[in-house]
Design brief:
Layout (H helix, E strand, L loop, with lengths): L1 H6 L4 E3 L5 H12 L4 E6 H5 L9 E5 L2 H11 L3 E3 L4 H16 L6 E4 L6 H12 L5 H4 L2 E4 L2 H9 L16
Parallel strand pairs: 1-2, 2-3, 4-5, 5-6
Length: about 170
């Protein structure tokens, strides 16, 4: 994904770490000549988790500031396999899209079926009417990066007139 973003001249905005998948992603983009902007908290930077070879590294005080800064600087969002932090960050920006706080596409790279349980959860939530089909469909999920980026680039913001259709209760 990092190499693909760089080849497409798409700047990577991410959490600023040098470890784990975040570090691999940043290094791949940098190795391909891409622009990489990291946003990390001071506490994490002081623990020497920060990637020091980025195009830009922004240090903020709190996780809330970190997420807001990343969301502000990004034109869209891609979730790769990860843990609670990954899920938290993705669902926050996805909710912001749903609420109309921003109009940025949200995608999921479903590597080796990692996110199939999540896809099934979205389907179940839609069947039980916790999610509207239009909101479920805001999540662009693909198993390969090229298709995912192509779909993100052609995404059109959702407009929903009302949140709850009371006639369907």
């Amino acid at each position: 994904m990092g190499r693909l973003l760089a080849k497409r001249e798409i700047r990577l905005v991410y959490g600023g770490g040098r470890v784990g998948l975040m570090g691999v992603l940043a290094d791949a983009a940098l190795d391909e000549g891409g622009e990489v902007h990291g946003v990390i908290t001071r506490a994490l930077a002081e623990k020497e988790v920060a990637h020091r070879g980025l195009t830009a590294l922004e240090v903020v005080e709190t996780m809330h500031e970190r997420k807001a800064a990343m969301a502000d600087r990004a034109d869209g969002f891609i979730m790769l396999p990860g843990g609670f932090g990954t899920l938290d960050e993705f669902f926050e920006v996805l909710t912001w899209t749903q609420l109309g706080i921003h109009s940025k596409p949200c995608g999921v790279l479903n590597v080796s079926g990692f996110f199939e349980p999540l896809r099934m959860l979205f389907e179940m939530a839609t069947e039980h009417r916790f999610l509207r089909p239009e909101h479920r469909d805001m999540v662009i999920m693909e198993s390969d990066g090229v298709s995912l980026i192509d779909r993100l680039n052609s995404w059109t913001p959702l407009t929903v007139d009302k949140w709850l259709d009371r006639s369907q209760r």
